[in-house]
Amino acid sequence: MEELRKIYNAGVVGAGGAGFPTHKKLSTRVEYFIINGAECEPLLQTDKHIMREKADELMLGIEKAAGLVQADRIVFALKKKYSDETYHLKKAAEKLNMNMEFFFMDSIYPAGDEQILVFEVTGRTVPPGGIPMQVGAVVSNVGTLLNIYYAMEDKPVIRKYVSVLGEVNDPVILDVPIGISVRECISAAGGSKLDSFHVILGGPVMGKIIAAEEIDKRGITKTDGGIIVVPSDHHLIRKNALSLRHMINQTRSACIQCSYCTDMCPRYLIGHPLRPHKIMRKIGYSEEIDESFIDSLICCECGICELYACPMGISPRLVNVYVKKKLREKGIRFQDNGSGIKDLSLREHRKIPAARMFSRIDMNKYDVKRPLELKRVDTDTVSISLKQHIGKAASPLVNAGDRVYAGQLIASVDFEDVGANIHGSIDGTVMKIDDFIIIQKTSNGVMPC
């Protein structure tokens, strides 16, 4: 319990994107403890950097986390092509004499998706709408496990590694304080090469798209692992800019019900009852969202359906995003009807090579083959979100005008809550509190203007 308290105190959450509070995830016993080093999205190098440069600390974090869940098997899953990373990891594991297996995966997309990873490693399908614990597994991203190591040293999560790529002059991995603006990160990567650009925050397929005018307002959170600068007329930007009306009209006029979107869906291929082509058929007939659309709730939004499979260029993923939102607003929850496929052998012949997915989304030219260098960046102002995680937002413990220091607890949740503590990432003065806590650096005790 003391170790879980340390993880809770440090505000550790899933660093790979989901942001599930780690002290909650590690509070049960499981058969498999799986380390996710597969880096789901193409292009990013953040996890590879951790595996190479922080292997010793990472192994200590793994040892602690695996002990908490009393795992029978510890499995480090990563891609076969990560030879340099594997060398460093094995060397670090040998130092601790760890009883750990390595599971090497093909370069498929989405290899790092939690439920796909569990299936690859264990052969077990996580129930639709369920979590890996239901099949005796817990999955943790390498960034999360590094933060667990620091938590054992009583160091809270106040900094983040972020890959900055795309149309920037100096692609780089940044070590930045939580809450630094996206603009400052782009500037630290030599600035954008373009006058007109958009930013994909996260990976190129599942990341959040923000316009250039928003990059001053958006601060880096505990779950952000990448910043990709792309032209404003890039295919991914145009695709995501389509209105719902346009998408529905496209569906009605162009969907040929070929079912390729379903045939290639990674969740369908592990036995989940998700059939995107049927959802497209339904919305083509009626825009009234009801229980008949319930399967959309288990879509992981990987983008294969619309960016790889669909021969007509329409948007099953974006339609699913809209449908899921409407179902949740109505309080409709997923119920498994048992209609998922039982013969999972088809999956072996329908895996998507990451390189081909990469080419389809027109990102090849941004793929930096060499390891990116690390650059530490500091800032005078941070905007720290009170909800950087799944669950309850943290409640502020400070007021405007208070002086705070880096590492100070500035917002909290109870240990029993699904939520995470938040800490100041720079020394300074609290300037404003709403959904964010804005801190500005002070010098010589002088309040900022």
3D structure, described in words:
It comes from Lutispora saccharofermentans. Keywords: 4Fe-4S, Electron transport, Iron, Iron-sulfur, Metal-binding, Repeat, Transport. There is one protein chain. The longest helix is centred in the first third of the chain and has 14 residues, at 55-68. The protein is globular. It has helices at residues 2-10, 22-25, 46-53, 55-68, 83-96, 114-122, 142-152, 182-188, 235-240, 244-254, 260-263, 276-285, 304-309, 316-329, 354-360; strands spanning 32-36, 73-79, 100-105, 108-109, 137-141, 159-166, 172-177, 197-201, 208-211, 226-231, 352-353, 374-376, 381-385, 395-396, 403-404, 409-412, 422-423, 428-433, 436-440. It has 4 domains: 2-152, Rossmann fold (3-Layer(aba) Sandwich), CATH 3.40.50; 159-234 and 362-377, Ubiquitin-like (UB roll) (Roll); 258-351, no CATH class; 380-449, OB fold (Dihydrolipoamide Acetyltransferase, E2P), CATH 2.40.50. Helix 4 (55-68) packs across helix 5 (83-96) and helix 10 packs across helix 12 (276-285). Strand 6 (159-166) and strand 7 form a beta hairpin. The chain has 15 helices and 19 strands. It is an alpha/beta fold. The chain has a 6-stranded mixed sheet with strand order 9-8-10-6-7-12, with helices on one face. The protein has a 4-stranded parallel sheet with strand order 3-2-1-5, sandwiched between helices.
